[in-house]
Amino acid sequence: MSKFILYTLAMTSIGLCANIQASASIHANANPKLKPFTTDGCSSFPDGTLSQPTLWRHCCVVHDIDYWMAGENSIRLNSNSALGICVNESLNHNYEFPFGLAMAIGTNLGGSQKLPTSWKWSYGWTGTKKKIDSKTIIAEKLQVQEKLEWAAAWLGSSEFAKEYKLTPKQQQYIMDGLKYKIEHPLTTGFLGVLNP
Known about the structure:
Layout: H1 3-18, H2 57-69, H3 73-90, H4 99-110, H5 134-155, H6 158-163, H7 168-183
């Protein structure tokens, strides 16, 4: 069984047990607005180890893209699983403690849309999410595409790489994840490979 499937099963079980469900993708207000993409790296979790303080920050930036644009709960759970796998692969399995699994569990529990945090599921949208309809999905897709194109320019810039202390390979991972989200805006989390 693949690591992604194992992580997804674990995250689904934890989400169901904790009864923390993200709502579907629509807003209570008539004109939902998507704010420009922002990231704080790994939010309340470290961005890396003491010796390599930004070791898995790129994983968190790609994860933040999913949390910013939101969608169905299955996307959130898969995104959390992809985050955990990316973190563990960044560590090259050099630690016995499963940091990636800890992060995936933490984001599954602490990233609920129902919590008053700046990193919650759908943090990019104004208003409160409710149920979906086809007109709103089309309107949201157009906003997401427009904002993703703006995010691509910012995330691909040398200023972003310098500010977030990213290696070229980490920045390329982020760009690959962003490209995936532009091509597949309502699908599961990006599970790319950061080549050494």
